[in-house]
Amino acid sequence: MTVPGRASADRGSPTVTAPPPAERTRHRAGRAARVAASALVLFVVLFWRLGAPSFWDPDEAHYAQTSRELIDTGDWLAPYYNDRPFFDKPILFHWLQGAAMKVAGPAEQ
Prior knowledge:
Blueprint: H1 21-47, H2 60-73, E1 80-81, E2 84-85, H3 91-104
Antiparallel strand pairs: 1-2
Helix pairs in contact: 2-3
């Protein structure tokens, strides 16, 4: 008797039999469900509310002004907010935002 998916010992050469169609269908359905779940998670993480205005982030304008002052003063080593040193956030964020503002301009148009 051969077991699906295992080598047969009836003859000298091993042969592999295919699993029954119901098992293949179940395997495909399980795989399709995992792929769909992964795609859904990726969609939520990468694209959910992309571009939607957010009124719940009060610091966005604060960080934009800090990056604008980096550009205006030319001092890229010490961020300032309203002419006072601002070291509450790591400088890399302001460098990246300031570089983008330098290239694209200070406001979206």
